[in-house]
Specification:
This protein is of the alpha+beta class and 509 residues long. Helix content is 39%, strand content 21%. This is PDZ domain-containing protein.
Length: 509
Amino acid sequence: MKKRMALVAAIVAAALMGGLFGRLWAQKSATLGESLQLFSRVVGLVMTSYVERVKPNDLIKSAIRGMLGSLDPYTNFLDKSNYSELKVRTEAQFGGIGIHIGMVGNRLTVISPIEGTPAERAGIRGGDRIAEIGGKSTENYTLQDAVKFLRGKPGTKVDIGVDRPGVNELIPIEITRAIIKIKAVPYAGMVTGNIGYVRLADFSKVASRELRQALDSLLDIGASKIIFDLRSNGGGLLKEGCEVTDFFLPKDRLIVSTKGRVPQSQKEFLAGTPAAHGNFPMVVLVDRGSASAAEIVAGAIQDWERGLILGDTTFGKGSVQTIHQIRPETAVKITTAYWYTPSGRCINRPRNRAGGKAEDSTEAGKIFHTLGKLHRSVYGGGAIVPDIYLPYEMLNGFERIVGRDAYFDFAVDYVNSHSGLTMDFVADSAVLEGFRGYLREEKELEFTDAEFDSSQTWFASQIEREVAGKISGMSGEYQIRLHRDPQVKRAIELLQPVRSNEELFAKLK
């Protein structure tokens, strides 16, 4: 018992002496000292009296998580696996085989191989089920289990067993892992006439470089107007958010400011270079999944009247997290400031730990004004409210029940049984009748013909998208998706007749 109590004392003493506790202790904070003594006593009692033996490290980590859990949703303790995944997202690369993978019908399924990776070179196809990894069945694997065993040091080998539709036996494939680079810009291309489209999926360390390359390419082939898609972009590095915004604003324009409790958190970030490609007309697409750095970009573009924002109100994740590395593979991520757009709007929308909206912001309903010639009204309260509100159409109950798995599986079977398909494929009445039967026979869904008929347009769009993905990969899927995307269609309608941003904004009147 004495040894355990000594260990507890050592743990608490280390907390008091190191880092933030040490600085606060030096300030002779009586309240903190009393609280730490209370914590020490509780830990000691658990260690000495709890009915089962408790590991000290587990106990302290649980206490840390509990403490941080009482704060906002973005302040977290990062253990080895969490910290490693964070580095993968920000570094935009990892050692692996190069596949997009998901759970389809409770089975590990390749959504698509990534172009130019070992998986593609080994002949992995979209729709392949990964039945074995390293000679072991994946029957009870989670997605996280699969990622853990498929990733590894570049140059090492991994054996997988593939269950491919139409093939009776498992296909054994040996793949040598390599560095897999995650694209921040998964697709860019012309959508019609002189209108280019570019999607930015995140703000990893390659985001600004890839976006510049995409914009250069589009403008070189004749684009004079741009649809910039930030939907479902959950953010990333502040530095990349500022550098992306830098492409569109004149030099020395304010991009974003941060304000927190300590003086070091008060910062302003300005555009460092002149706008790279002039003031071409631009529509920025956002939705409820646009967050963090994506909101910085959208907010600055809106405040400086550089482009028109279209879609749904963004998420409202407008806080700065500072990562403090505690050990080589452990860190604490702490919210240290809030982001403010150039007009002074706080991007952050208060949320409770479960992710729901908490109390109303003090800015709710407050009117701010853009900083360009139009001096337009924009609104506080957190998040970015689009200039043109056009949310996604809600799926009906039957469409939600069907789910993406059904389209994916049907497309895999259809492509395997119909050779020579091209990107001109159309889900006509015969295809839809096949899908009707597939849902009843293979998926065992019960529905009326009237329910199916009322959703045929939606079903056709999803089947065409999945088939295109199987034929031409991710780029093919994007081409088909954009033709049916109501927000992209609206952006095209706005951009087609205009020659300047002034004409574009005139459409708001």
